[in-house]
Amino acid sequence: MQFATIEHVEARPDLPVITDLEAAALARATVNLFRAWELSDLESRTLLGDMPLRTWARWKTGDIGRIDRDLRARMAILMGIHKALRYLFSEPARGYAWLRRPSTAFGGQCALDIMMRGEITDLIDLRCYLDAERGAW
User: Which residue range forms the structural domain that includes residue 50?
Assistant: First the structure.
């Protein structure tokens, strides 16, 4: 049996990271996005990786604390989903409504159902689906 050789890849600390200031701005934008999407507190907290209720309540008042790497990534993916919806739907309200509309592409579930499974990979999968729909592949 032969095994393929795996190429060594160096870490890239020079690649951009989300700074603390950018993460705080992203958090404020996420709160506004969830208001536009008309998400419940439970839906919002689930999409943010099961954020504690008290933390979410503080975020809604503008009190943003420390944001870990996973949460930064989740918010960046959610903004990508928002961006893709804005490309696909000329009227923002139609895109936001699409999130709750059952789809044959998702076996009769809606996009929000997919995201509500709570895993970051579910957000990534939806983002990839939307990117493919808008012809980014």
Answer: 20-133
